[in-house]
């Protein structure tokens, strides 16, 4: 069946029906989230909570299956099959390839949570008997590595490998619909294919918007820290506390107090919007220049800055402790990865897993159409085994190093902090160094507070600047990669979509994030994105089936 793309007019190069429906869906959700923020949040939160609570077992089992399947495929007889023609070779070298896939796959989230998440688990998790203890620190790292290790990358492997295989080996469009070809054949070009691709556009745009929301707040906190102005997060916290002290303190009814506390006057988000505008313009220029130039160069810069920060922690942090931790954390994670993959909190039923692990699995699934298509786009010419090694194992290894150096430094500061008591004796004060308190008050300050507590003078300020630039560059590469993916989907697989639409969607994605920041609603849209993970998880299961069916048929032809 012929792929239909408009030959003239505003939609030139794209499928008009898909583009119009996608724009309408995005507009409706933005208006709902922005104009009816509380209603939208409550609606999506109730739906998300019901799904995650009722299907906790499903998410845990499904993502565990994805990991086991990918590991099996790595060592299978299909590993030498090339994603493209048999004599085709990769477009990008290893360093560029890895830099781009890591930037798109984790990037900004890993910077944001690298200290905050271990500190959260250090305070409470269902596996410890005592919070703020050495045992709690050890388990905090184990849990954090679980959430950022093999499992998310296994999801990305399946989506990216399936799309790359059908696009470059079977010459189908580089779009989510192509993974359904073994089941429905040419019907992928009809309403079913359109629906699947629109779901991918939805997840990409709103997943990006919520990630940009996290990134812009951390950038603002970093710039405020460097240039001594009041960040939006600090101004908002102060406004809320003032409102509670002046307007809510006389209330005796708890429900009325909570309702009153939500009605505080929000400060102007001018600094956040300014950052979004600047970053969106740079990201749009990057995506216009093409994947081989702007996207690739920025991704290499990301990796270079990341390595600089890792060296900073290793040299000026607790070096011996970090190297010991790296060895122990790696062994601890590998020993625990299988039991944790299948743990469902059945007997205690604390609700912790729904708020953390299951939420993460749903988030990675929701994010996988974007990351999967982008990884497929940059992986043409690689073998299946090479693809899995590059997408599953290398990023996981870097994540273990990253989280150990960042999170380990913060935990070391909290574990070995001391104070002098009234008798003049030096005593341990675990959990009182200031990082735990910073995470409680404003999670965006966790990284910068850690730099401060390392107490290495001007070098800490330099590291803070590098970290802020890194957040910006990850922010930009996430945005330009998402723009390229959206345009690729709406053009039904065109790898170099029209420049006009790259500009339009690049600016549009920034506008969605900006509007929701001003009007409120980012949290509601994040919840909506998580909800969209459920239907897409079924699509990934279909991808597994379709990929195996195609690989078996191909192997039979080769052997026959």
Characterize this entry briefly:
The protein is mainly alpha-helical and 560 residues long.
What does this protein structure show overall?
The structure is a single chain. This protein is mainly α and 560 residues long. The chain has one domain (16-227, 271-559): Amino acid/polyamine transporter I (Up-down Bundle). Helix content is 75%, strand content 1%. The chain has 23 helices and 2 strands. It has helices at 16-35, 37-54, 56-74, 94-105, 108-123, 134-148, 150-169, 181-184, 191-227, 232-248, 254-261, 270-289, 291-316, 319-342, 352-355, 357-377, 384-415, 435-441, 446-454, 458-490, 499-519, 522-531, 533-559; strands at residues 418-420, 426-428. The protein has a two-stranded antiparallel ribbon with strand order 1-2. α1 crosses α9 (191-227) and α5 (108-123) crosses α18. It starts with 15 loop residues before the first helix and ends with a helix.
Which keywords apply here?
single chain, 560 residues, mainly alpha, Amino acid/polyamine transporter I, 23 helices, globular
Count of individual helical segments: 23
Portion of residues within helices = over 70%
Q: At the third CATH level, what is the topology name?
A: Amino acid/polyamine transporter I
Number of strands: 2
Give the C-alpha Rg.
Answer: 24 Å
What is the mean predicted local confidence, pLDDT? 86
The helix-and-strand class reads: mainly alpha
**Strands ordered across the widest β-sheet:** 1-2
- The rounded distance between the terminal residues' Cα atoms is 29 Å
The number of domains is: 1
State the CATH class.
Mainly Alpha
Summarize the helix and strand pattern as letters: HHHHHHHHHHHHHHHHHEEHHHHHH
Named at the architecture level, the CATH assignment is Up-down Bundle
* Sheet having the most strands: 2 strands, antiparallel
Give the percentage of residues in beta strands: under 5%
Indicate the low-confidence ranges by residue numbers: none
Q: Looking at the structure, what is the overall shape?
A: globular
């Amino acid at each position: 069946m012929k792929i239909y793309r408009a030959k003239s007019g505003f939609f030139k190069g794209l499928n008009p029906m898909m583009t119009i429906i996608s724009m309408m869906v995005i507009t409706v959700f933005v208006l709902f989230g922005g104009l009816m923020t509380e209603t939208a949040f409550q609606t999506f939160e109730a739906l998300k909570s019901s799904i995650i609570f009722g299907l906790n077992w499903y998410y845990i089992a499904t993502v565990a299956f994805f990991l086991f399947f990918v590991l099996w495929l790595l060592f299978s007889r299909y590993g030498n099959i090339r994603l493209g023609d048999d004599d085709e070779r990769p477009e990008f070298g290893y360093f560029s390839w890895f830099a781009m896939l890591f930037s798109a796959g984790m990037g900004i989230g890993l910077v944001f949570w690298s200290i905050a998440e271990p500190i959260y688990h250090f305070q409470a998790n269902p596996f410890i008997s005592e919070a703020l203890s050495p045992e709690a620190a050890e388990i905090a790292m184990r849990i954090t590595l679980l959430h950022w290790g093999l499992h998310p990358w296994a999801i990305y492997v399946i989506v990216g490998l399936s799309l790359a295989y059908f696009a470059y080996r079977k010459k189908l469009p580089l779009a989510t619909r192509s993974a359904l070809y073994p089941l429905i054949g040419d019907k992928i070009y009809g309403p079913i294919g359109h629906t699947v691709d629109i779901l991918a556009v939805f997840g990409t745009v709103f997943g990006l918007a919520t990630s940009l929301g996290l990134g812009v707040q951390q950038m603002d906190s970093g710039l405020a820290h460097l240039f001594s102005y009041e960040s939006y997060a600090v101004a908002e916290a102060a406004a809320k506390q003032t409102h509670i002290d002046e307007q809510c303190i006389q209330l005796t009814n708890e429900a009325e107090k909570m309702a009153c506390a939500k009605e505080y006057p929000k400060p102007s988000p001018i600094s956040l919007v300014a950052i979004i505008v600047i970053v969106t313009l740079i990201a749009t220029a990057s995506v216009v220049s093409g994947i081989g130039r702007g996207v690739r160069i920025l991704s290499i810069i990301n990796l270079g800055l990341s390595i600089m920060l890792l060296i900073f922690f290793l040299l000026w942090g607790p070096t011996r402790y970090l190297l010991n931790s790296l060895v122990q954390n790696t062994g601890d994670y590998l020993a625990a990865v299988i039991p944790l993959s299948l743990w469902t909190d059945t007997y205690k039923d604390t609700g912790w897993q729904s708020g953390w692990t299951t939420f993460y699995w749903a988030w990675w699934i929701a994010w996988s159409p974007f990351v999967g298509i982008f990884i497929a786009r940059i992986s043409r010419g690689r073998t299946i085994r090479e693809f899995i090694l590059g997408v599953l194992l290398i990023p996981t290894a870097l994540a273990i190093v990253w989280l150990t150096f960042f999170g380990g430094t913060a935990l070391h500061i909290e574990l070995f902090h001391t104070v002098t008591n009234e008798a003049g004796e030096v005593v341990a004060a675990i959990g009182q160094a200031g990082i735990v308190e910073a995470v409680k008050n404003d999670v965006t300050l966790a990284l910068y507070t850690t730099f401060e507590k390392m107490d290495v003078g001007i070098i800490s300020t330099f590291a803070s600047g590098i970290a802020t630039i890194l957040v910006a560059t990850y922010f930009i590469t996430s945005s330009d990669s998402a723009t390229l993916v959206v345009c690729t989907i709406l053009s039904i697989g065109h790898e170099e979509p029209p420049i006009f639409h790259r500009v339009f969607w690049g600016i549009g994605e920034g506008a969605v994030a900006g509007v929701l920041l001003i009007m409120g609603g980012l949290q509601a849209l994040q919840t909506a994105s998580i909800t969209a993970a459920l239907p897409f998880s079924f699509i990934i299961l279909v991808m597994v089936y379709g990929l195996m069916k195609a690989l078996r048929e191909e192997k039979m032809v080769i052997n026959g």
